Amino acid sequence: MTTNSSIEWTQVTWNPVTGCTKISHGCKNCYAERMSRRLKAMGAKKYSNSFSVTIHESVLDEPMKWSKPRLIFVNSMSDLFHESVPVWFIESVFEVMNRASQHTFQILTKRPTRVVEMNEKLNWLPNVWFGVSIESERWIERLDLLKNLDAHTKFLSLEPLLGPLPNLQLEGVDWVIVGGESGPKARPIKAEWVREIRDNCVSHNVPFFFKQWGGVFKKQAGRLLDNRTWDEMPEVHSS
Questions:
Q1: Which of 46, 76, 140, 168 is the most exposed place for a label (fewest CB within 10 A)?
Q2: What is the CATH number of the domain that holds 204?
Q3: With 0-12 CB in 10 A as exposed, 13-18 as middle and 19+ as buried, what is 6?
């Protein structure tokens, strides 16, 4: 089911896949895992498998029911390119996104190696934005893999940001999102890390979006950086 989202950089979420497994240290306090367990306890049928990877063919056509153009975050509760998601299902998700050209779809992964392997099988229309998550310098190779894809709009989600990224090469990148970790065990973010990335984006004319400082009480911490909000985004495709 497609639902309205509280995520600042999208409008709605669409989850044809739910569940995941941890792959890097940014996954340690995964919000989707916490939410899946909560939804299972509430009796939500879609989360009866809790956080085990599960495909949901029944919701594949959901975006076709939306006539008004929307920004749609694909699989906020999973990773479309998890090794347990069949190739045929990934291709089916892309077919829906290609048909629903009135919408802009935002896909995010921590598994770009698999995407590179499938790159030529996928139809990268301009309404499909593709991004990778990078939480620290340790995972910077995800950026290099992103640049090898045929996606028209490529972006970075540097969230939860767990360390500085001084060597971020932004050539070929169309958007950068930064955010601190939130929740009961949130790890700290430093302002100098954020400012360095912001200044890098400004100097390369890359839209910069600062999502949150995070922390245990993220609403109190807010999302102001140097007394302003940063809500820059790429131009949305018009079908």
A1: 140
A2: 3.20.20
A3: exposed
Which 3-state string (H, E, C) describes 25-67? HHHCCCHHHHHHHHHHHCCCHHHCCCCCCEECHHHCCHHHHCC
Per-chain mean pLDDT for the chain? 96
Residue 204 domain-assigned (yes or no): yes
Distance CA 57, CA 48 (A): 15
pLDDT of residue 41: 96
Kindly give the parts of the chain with pLDDT less than 50: none
Asked if residue 226 is part of any domain, the answer here is no
Q: What is the pLDDT of residues 81-90, one digit of tens each?
A: 999 999 999 9
The structure tokens listed for 79 are: 């990773």
pLDDT tens per residue across span 59-78: 999 999 999 999 999 999 99
- Going edge to edge, which strands form the sheet with 2-4? 2-4, 12-14, 71-74, 104-109, 128-133, 153-158, 175-179, 208-212
How many structural domains comprise the chain? 1
Let me know if residue 50 belongs to a domain.
Answer: yes
Answer yes or no: is 238 within a domain: no
